[in-house]
Fold:
Amino acid sequence: MALYCAISNEVPEVPVVSPSSGSVFEKRIIEKYIIENGVDPISGKELRVEDLIEIKTPPIVKPKPPSATSIPATLKSMQDEWDALMLHAFTQRQQLQTARQELSHALYQHDAACRVIARLTKEVTAAREALATLKPQAGITQQPQHPAEAAAPGGGATPVGMSAEVVARLQERATALTQERKRRGRTVPEGLVGPDQIRAFLTVASHPGLHSASVPGILALDINPTDHSRILTGGNDRNATVFNKDTEQVVAILKGHTKKVTRVIYHPDEDTVITASPDHTIRVWNVPTSQTTVILRSHDGPVTGLSLHPTGDYVLSTSTDQHWAFSDIRTGALLTKVGDSSGVSLTTAQFHPDGLIFGTGTENSQVKIWDLKEQSNVANFPGHVGPVTSISFSENGYYLATAAEDACVKLWDLRKLKNFKTIQLDEGYAIKELCFDQSGTYLAVAGSDVRVYLCRQWQELKVFNEHTAAATGVRFGRHAQCLASTSMDRTLKLYGIE
Structure:
């Protein structure tokens, strides 16, 4: 039986046996391997040249090489190259087998890691939702449910009328605000950021844990006019949340509405917030106790618009029941309720800075201006196509910005009662809300993205595309030094200069 070298698979000239693996090798090849590696190439165990056992076989008679020629030297060189090639091929086969085993192990680990990451992601989402509800809340204790909450919903309240005292108070406040505005004139407020700074705004914070992840979406936003660190949001989860952006802590979670919260207002002088919902109710909350103090049942349909009067004592609301209502937030009394003569649903409402007139939007694209004292429609602004989604009065009292489902913003001059500027956005752009800053210098638009415009020139200064869903609310901070926006992606984002 012929012997074959375990490395070269050739009949060895000088066969030897390894006592470690019992394999047969060509002596010169195995000696080279042992000198370089010191182990048996088959078993991998330590092996020395002295341990090799020679096998006695009949000698192989080779033809004698011719003398006086270089062919023998060439053959010897080729033999050496062949030996080296066999050693290299054997090493490569061993390395290939090792690499296959390592790759199989790595693929198994990757599959296991993907399963763990998916499970942890699910747990983190659930934990964030629980954290938003259970996070320790700045000294808040749970209060028993307000007795008024047991009442059956409905819009059965009867208007008590606007007394002479109420009208006098409205007139007094309007006169004071008008005089104050005249004293300020066109002076730019100290500390107001400039257009170049607005252009440099970046996203400085993003908060996804304010509302439930199971019913995603933040639908309304407001900032405390006197304490700009406090931000109020209303969500699809039927809750309103008060959040402190400086401490990044939830201050209060206001639970009571039976449907989503679509409108929110933070009172400028008190730690009080007002919320509205399609459940036909408007709630007034005490923030430190997280308790409802007053429930206004002024409408027979979903409440669509909400605006606080400059006195801080009365609230204007609109509804799909085709009426606007003026109510006292202290007593819960409905002072007056007026129906729209066109017989269509009202979609939004906003007080003029002086508080004696206000605007409403309708389902049939109309923007209407009303005199509060006379309770009459004094002007109409046609021109939009589709339901009006948002209106906002400038601080100077002269301009009104309106938006509808026609992807454009219209600017109206209240002195001349005409449209003097239209900002046409991209086709399909869904505008959810717009607002002026407190100085009337900038206009922000929330919709498919968030945009800021410089008033008078109506120049676009900045576009923010950080939200992954439609933006639903936007508000400026003090002196426009920051900007806040909310979205259906469940996040509150803050923009400013880092």
Summary: Helices lie at 27-37, 71-134, 164-184, 195-199. The mean pLDDT is 87. The radius of gyration is 40 Å. Residues 71-134 form the longest helix (64 residues).
